[in-house]
Amino acid sequence: MRFKAIETAYNRPVINVPGPGEKVADYYGSYTFNDDVMKTLLTPEAYLKVSNAIKSGSRIDREIADEVAAAMKAWATSKGATHYTHWFQPLTGGTAEKHDAFFDVTPSGKAIEKFKGSALVQQEPDASSFPSGGLRATFEARGYTGWDPSSPAFLMDNGAGGKTLCIPSVFISYTGEALDYKTPILRALHVLDKAATAVMYYFDRNVEKVTATLGPEQEYFLVDKALYYARPDLVMAGRTVFGHSPAKGQQLEDHYFGSIPPRVNAFMVDFEYEAWKLGIPVRTRHNEVAPGQFECAPTFEELNLAIDHNALLMDLMNKVAERHNYKVLFHEKPFAGINGSGKHNNWSMMTDTGVNLLAPSTKPKETLRFLTFLMNVVKAVHDHADLLRASIASAGNEYRLGANEAPPAIVSIFLGDELIRLLETLENRGEVQLEKGDNVFYKLGITRTPPLMRDNTDRNRTSPFAFTGNKFEYRAVGGSANSASPMIILNTIVANQLQEFKKDLEGRLEFGEKKELAIVDILKEYYRQSKSILFQGNGYSDNWVQEAAKRGLTNIASTPLALGKYIEPASIQVLEKMGVLSAREVHARYEIELENYIKKVQIESRVIGDLALNHVVSTAVKYQHQLAQTAKSLVELELIEEAQPLKELIKEISRRVFIIKQAVEAMTEARKKANNLEDIPKRAELYGSEVKDYFEKIRYEVDKLELLIDDEDWPLVKYREMLFVK
């Protein structure tokens, strides 16, 4: 099977992707029910009410919903749609949809086209099989999806099966609790808007709305489909549980930003064309550091829409990859010894007057505004670092965080030398100055090259939460994650901190302090309280781990322990206070994440046991028998000395097989022990320690056997065969 898969993969032709024959601007968003389409198809009154709902959250009545539904149906069916669905994001980590046809049957048996406002606004998917964390009993099946007008409906091309109108929606239980990612992210964005707008009152009274923006960079691996299906661990667990590192991996860094292989480029071109039709603003593509790894990145968008687009992008990539005989791997660490995949969440805040609140300025008033929002973000992350760490905890990210290509599990913030000097000056002298200085342009000594401008801060790729000039980049988010999880927390804690800042400022103003001086004093105090989380050095170094411990920063490597930070009193207090998640919803999500962790580690454990015994050990025993026969023949020919190396090899194989078999049996017993525990947190801890402890022990022995056993006999596709297929 291995060699057949290799032969298939290496003989794949590049699939020709014909260009669209038109400019991107001519078809961008053509599969979305966007603002231009609404203006064309809706009456002015309906268009105004939908626009107001998107901008300010005002309610859409059922009459308007009927008109929007009719317009949506006319638009979708004119483009070949036969079905519609509420497209939502349950707590499974993926997206969900239930397709209904655009028709009904009359009592006389005649089919009529039908799509009313009631169907647009609300659907009832079966909620019993979606994770609820105990919010619902399994026999209580009713749940509701509700239209989110702030994210445009879109058409999903199902290939030969036609198109489906997808309506982005929230998902709640019969009793009203959130069972998805979208509901709490909309709540968090609402409270951030209110809190940030209230603070902006002290700087610009014309600001009526503040919008969080997001640009999630997506890293991923491409593996040929034939090779993928020849690796049961990739199919079942999304990562390779065995595999010896090839002689050449990423150490030469020759893949990074290198020429994109033609077959991969054809996939990218095809994917981008489909993404642009859906209004997903993918602009960047390049090779990543690891062989077989790539990245795409979008233009910044309103945060809720950006999260929808990233979830849609991952689904779209999977579908397009099938056409090119690829499989996309989003797992955080699909291959040992080389870089894993993250989803860098670039986050900022924008006013309705067009001002980026995290963009520095040389004007004193604007600088004070910039520092106000910057320091409130820093203090929010400092005060709730463990909660932010919990938001990125997963079975996959546990392999990646702290590795040589990913930030450590320690939450820290990089601001850059310029901003640190500015804050030190603020603390020591109470002065606010931000000057670009004389070194704005590099002097290269090359006259024919235009001058290159330097940013006011460097980038630190080892920092989990880095300021990158006019935004923060949360680099620690895992490649397979839904960006909503960390963004729910980040927007909530920043909104909470901005509320606290407003209280502190109002308290000083009541005593007659001058506004600017009061703000400076508050920011100085925030800096003193939060400076321990600021780190400008190499986050990958062991010295930082020691230094962070001295500063009192937590280093939570274990996913179950990190998830436990969700249900600490301070975490629940801030989430409830801000109206983003109730205590019940928080506890439910904690339980869901723990169960997800348990199941993923359990699946990996079973895959390891199956492959180790049924693939590796059986192959090793057969090869050992061949060696024994050869050694016996040599002895019979009185070639005793020549037979000795074979005997040593037979002994080594026997020893490694013995260790593997013992470890698999012990791992299975540990799994049984964990499964017998009713307490889910304790079960998760056992899976993360006693069960998972055997993974590397077994892997080490298996990977050594890969080097000993004849290449012709080895049953699993090797790293060198998977990673370097172009």
From TrEMBL:
The entry sums up its family as follows: Belongs to the glutamine synthetase family.
What protein is this chain from?
A: Glutamine synthetase catalytic region
Q: What PANTHER family is this protein classified in?
A: GLUTAMINE SYNTHETASE, TYPE-3 GLUTAMINE SYNTHETASE
Q: The GS beta-grasp domain covers which part of the protein?
A: 82-176
Gene Ontology molecular function: any one: glutamine synthetase activity
Sequence ranges assigned to domain GS catalytic in this UniProt record: 188-616
Q: Which SUPFAM superfamilies match?
A: Glutamine synthetase/guanido kinase
Q: Which GO terms describe its biological process?
A: glutamine biosynthetic process
